[in-house]
Amino acid sequence: MATPSPSTPDRAASFGLVAEGYGRLRPAPQDEAIDWLLPRDASAVLDLAAGAGTLTALLALRVPEVHAVEPDDRMRAVLRERLPDADVHPGTAEAIPLPDAAVDAVIVSSAWHWFDTDRAVPEIARVLRPRGRLGIVWNGIDRDVDWVDRWSNGLSGTGGQPAPRSQSTRRGELLRTALETPDSPFGALEHAVFTTTRRTTPAEAAALLGTYSRVILLPEHERRDLLARALDTLCAELGIGPDDAFDLPFRALTWRTARR
Ligand SMILES: C[S@@+](CC[C@H](N)C(=O)[O-])C[C@H]1O[C@@H](n2cnc3c(N)ncnc32)[C@H](O)[C@@H]1O
Fold first, then answer.
1. What is the pLDDT of residue 38?
2. Whether residue 186 has pLDDT greater than 60
3. Tell me, which fold does domain 9-144+163-200+249-258 have in CATH?
4. Which residue minimizes the CA distance to atom 21 of ligand 1?
5. Whose CA is nearest to atom 26 of ligand 1?
6. Cα separation of 170 and 5, whole Å?
7. Residue extents of the structural domains in the chain
8. Whole-angstrom Cα distance, residue 233 to residue 251?
């Protein structure tokens, strides 16, 4: 099984550097996307690579038993503060600290691209019950909206730009390569896209960019320049001030499959 991962260990571990801001600024996928990812009758679910618990909190509203696995100490600390009663474990997708057949669903939000899928796919299958659900989502600003694309393209050239427009295609290829192999423990992938808007301000939207690994790892002065430019160009694009409210388009790219 191939593992076409563009990641490096440094980037995968970068989020803890901005754990508090990550928990505050990154939005969860909208309700329709979460409902599409989860099996209707799930009694136990794992939020794998749970980060600061943004999605964990919403899973806990829907499923009686929720486990969260996250390797980064600082992200787990924010998660624990947010959800003091949650069942939170240090661990990775490649070594999940749960027994065999423990859950009806494993949900992975904005993290699949960090996994070593040769090891993670059988490990996820191990903790799933037969016919259990694997749900995968990437939630981010919607670059299919022209002005959003114009804004993010305007930030290119520093290494800090958000991922390009073909993201949906690339994510789909990544998943098919890892999951739709002849010996895969999983069935065919289904795909859906959910769009929404979120009321925010240019100041918050620019700060949101600072929670992406490419931006986190820029040298301090480059990061500051990029975020200042993001704020200026967004205000100019929308014709509003840094603290004026506007609707920022978001898009959840979702996939689901079942354990054979
Ligand atoms: C972009 S964040 C997503 C966090 C959360 N799922 C969300 O949607 O807000 C990626 C997370 O994946 C975690 N991570 C990186 N490599 C991992 C691995 N091999 N196994 C499990 N988690 C990993 C990072 O520590 C980080 O918290």
1. 98
2. yes
3. Rossmann fold (3.40.50)
4. 92
5. 51
6. 11
7. 9-144+163-200+249-258
8. 21
